[in-house]
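We examine the record.
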Amino acid sequence: MRGDVTTKVPGILRRIRELMGDESRRKGLQRKARWLHVCACLDVISDTEQAILAYRNQREEEHGVLYLTTYGVLQAFVTQQDAVGHLAAALDHPIDGWPTKKGDRMNWGKHPLLREIRTIRVRAAGHPSLTRGINGQPAEYHFVVQQTLHAGYFEMQSWSAAKAKSYDERRRVDVIKLAADQQQCIGNLLQCLRDALVGDASSTSLSG
C-alpha cells in the first residue's frame, strides 16, 4: 500500500503565479497579447499535476477504470510537457533545450526521460493500433495486455511490420516510475523558469 505522494511542482507554480502578479510584467505581457496564454499554461500545468498525483495515489483495481486512468495519465504527461514549453515561449525564457519559438524543434537529447514518456504514450495510448515509423522506419502495432493491467503498471505487447527487422516484444511499463520521472523533470524545468523570473524582478528593481 503506497502512502500519498506529494511533489515540488505545486509550490513552484505558486511562486511563479506570485511573480506573474507583478504589475509591470503583467502589463508587458498584455501588450504582447500573451497574458492569457501564460494563464492558460499555468492552469494546464496545475491541472495535469493534479491528475498525475491522483493516479499515483489511486487504489483502483477494476479494469475499466484502470484503462481510463492509465490512458488518462499518459495523455496528462504529454499535455503537461507541452504546457511547460508553451509557458517558456510565452515568457520569452528558453529553458534547457525547450523550444521558445513556433516551429523550433525540441532538443530531446537533453531530456531522455521525458522523450521516453512521450514514446510510451504514443505506443500505449496515442496511436497503439498503428504507430507510424519515423525517418522511414517501419510501422509498429501495440496494445496493453489486459490481465497485466494494475494500479501503477502494465505490460505492453508490440510488433514491428518490418520484413527484414521484425520483432515481437512484450515489456513491463512502470507508470509510477514514469510519473516520478515526469514530476522530477518538470519540477526542475519550472525551477529554471522561476529563477529566471526572479532575476527579471531583481533587474527591474535595481534599474528602478
